[in-house]
């Protein structure tokens, strides 16, 4: 079986691969990116793990629907974003999520002892404020700065027009700046 | 001044999201899920088949039953309404009227026995006359009886109906008469064909009392307007 490095690129031609091989490559390329993106939405490690698994199962099931109109990366991120938003919209899941977080907040914490020391650092403050932004601004900021996607790619993923993305991005930045200044 | 957000990947990946990773166990779960998707559905148990078929059968029978009930409900109602309309059109000669007429016949005309009942649109009368009366007297007394019954039944004046009464437009009449008997009246009623000599009948469409002898083969027919 070929490995990702043999393709020499993040993108690869799926037509030469079996469905399972294709899934392995997708996971090799995007597994950590997907789970971390999912975490920025749900802010819970366990949920992020479950959602990331769902993302790859969905990729596997809908592989034939991918039409090369966008990059594989954009397609995988779009599935991730939609799944996370579906989860956040679901009332029952929201309830379970709150209960679960309430009970397991200590277990789910991603803060290591070292991190807690630098928690008050500027960088950590920035990360904290970004994750505290309203979802509408948070997702655009994270896709743009954290995932380093272009405005065009973000507009494809979020199914919004590019000027709208730019506006949200600008407002998100302003909101973040105000919050950071306030925190000083 | 550099945009601090540009450091966001480094900040998050080395900070909060450092320990967030997709592990081997998660990969295995994904493979397991994809394998499960390709699995053929597990065969259903016998109990499931039995239950499913029973439920389908019960629902089918219930549906057919409800459908039949529904289909029958409309014509049945129409039939009932028709029957009710017909019944309401037939004047009812009640027992009190018949009793009054019977008493009058027995007390004023010495009729030996008389009985009558109405079933549907037919009034049936059995009359036994004394031996000494002639056939013409039998007919006269029978007509008197029927006129009285008809008169009592109607609300309108008897004379306005030409002494006939509208009753005969709605009711058929059969009058069985005989001129002699020492037997008990009820015993005779049980053997109508053998013991009654004459049958007078009014068809509701023509209102004419017609007589015929019913005791021998040579039937004699007489006709008279009531």
Write up this protein.
The complex is a heterodimer of chains A (184) and B (226). Chain A is an all-alpha fold and 184 residues long. Chain A has 10 helices and no strands. Chain A has helices at residues 4-7, 19-42, 45-61, 72-89, 91-108, 113-118, 122-132, 135-146, 151-158, 162-183. The relative contact order of chain A is 0.10. Chain B has 226 residues and is of the alpha+beta class. Chain B has 7 helices and 6 strands; from the N terminus they run H-H-H-H-E-E-H-E-H-H-E-E-E. Chain B has helices spanning 8-14, 24-38, 46-89, 95-109, 135-153, 185-189, 192-195, and strands at residues 113-119, 122-128, 172-178, 198-202, 208-213, 221-225. Chain B has a 6-stranded mixed sheet, with helices on one face. Chain B is rod-shaped, with a radius of gyration of 45 Å. Classes of the chains: A mainly alpha (184), B alpha+beta (226). Chain A binds chain B through residues 20, 23, 27, 31-32, 34-36, 39-40, 45, 48-49, 52-53, 56-57, 60-61, 110-112, 115, 118, 122-124, 126-127, 130-131, 141-142, 145-146, 148, 173, 176, and chain B through 4-9, 11-13, 15-22, 26-27, 29-31, 33-34, 37.
Brief rundown of the structure:
Helix content of chain A is about 75%, strand content about 0%. Chain A has about 180 residues and is an all-alpha fold. The N and C termini of chain B lie far apart (about 130 Å).
Distance between the termini of chain B: 130 Å
Mean pLDDT across the residues of chain B is 76
Helix content of chain B: 40-55%
Report on the biggest sheet of chain B. Answer: 6 strands, mixed
Counting helices, strands and paired strands, the structural category of chain B is: alpha+beta
**Strand-and-helix sequence of chain B, N→C?**
HHHHEEHEHHEEE
Going by helix content, strand content and strand pairing, the class of chain A is: mainly alpha
Tally of DSSP helical segments of chain B: 7
Helix-strand pattern of chain A: HHHHHHHHHH
Biggest interface found: A-B, 38 and 25 residues
**Major beta sheet of chain A, specifics?**
none
Please list the strands of the largest sheet of chain B in the order they lie side by side. Answer: 1-2-3-4-5-6
Distance between the termini of chain A: 54 Å
Measured by DSSP, the beta-strand proportion of chain B falls in 15-25%
Keywords (chain B): Membrane, Transmembrane, Transmembrane helix
Protein name (chain B): DUF4367 domain-containing protein
Transmembrane segments (chain B): 50-71
């Amino acid at each position: 079986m070929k490995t990702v490095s043999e393709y020499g690129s993040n993108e690869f031609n799926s037509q030469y691969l079996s469905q399972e091989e294709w899934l392995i490559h997708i996971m090799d390329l995007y597994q950590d990116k997907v789970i971390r993106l999912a975490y920025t939405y749900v802010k819970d490690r366990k949920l992020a793990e479950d959602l990331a698994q769902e993302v790859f199962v969905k990729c596997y099931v809908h592989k034939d629907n991918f039409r090369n109109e966008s990059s594989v990366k954009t397609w995988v991120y779009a599935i991730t974003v939609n799944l996370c938003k579906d989860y956040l919209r679901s009332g029952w899941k929201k309830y379970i999520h709150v209960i679960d977080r309430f009970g397991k907040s200590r277990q789910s914490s991603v803060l290591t002892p070292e991190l807690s020391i630098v928690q008050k650092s500027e960088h950590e403050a920035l990360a904290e404020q970004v994750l505290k932004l309203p979802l509408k601004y948070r997702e655009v900021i994270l896709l743009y700065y954290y995932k380093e996607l272009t405005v065009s790619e973000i507009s494809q993923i979020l199914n919004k027009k590019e000027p709208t993305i730019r506006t949200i991005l600008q407002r998100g930045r302003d909101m973040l700046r105000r919050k950071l200044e306030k925190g000083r | 001044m550099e945009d601090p957000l540009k450091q966001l990947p480094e900040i998050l990946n080395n900070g909060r999201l450092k320990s967030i990773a997709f592990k081997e166990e998660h990969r295995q779960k994904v493979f397991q899920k994809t394998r499960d998707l390709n699995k053929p559905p597990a065969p259903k148990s016998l109990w499931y088949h039995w239950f499913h078929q029973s439920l389908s059968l019960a629902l089918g029978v219930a549906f057919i039953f409800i459908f039949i009930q529904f289909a029958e409900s409309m014509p049945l109602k129409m039939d009932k309404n028709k029957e009710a309309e017909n019944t309401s059109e037939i004047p009812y000669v009640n027992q009190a009227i018949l009793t009054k007429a019977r008493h009058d016949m027995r007390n004023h005309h010495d009729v030996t026995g008389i009985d009558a009942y109405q079933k549907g649109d037919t009034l049936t009368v059995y009359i036994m006359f004394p031996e000494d009366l002639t056939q013409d007297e039998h007919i006269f007394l029978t007509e008197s009886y029927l006129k009285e019954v008809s008169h009592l039944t109607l609300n309108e004046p008897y004379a306005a109906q030409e002494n006939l009464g509208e009753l005969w437009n709605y009711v058929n009449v059969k009058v069985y008469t005989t001129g002699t008997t020492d037997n008990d009246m009820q015993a005779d009623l049980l053997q109508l064909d053998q013991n009654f000599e004459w049958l007078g009948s009014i068809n509701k469409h023509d209102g004419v009392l017609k007589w015929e002898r019913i005791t021998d083969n040579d039937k004699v027919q007489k006709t008279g307007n009531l």
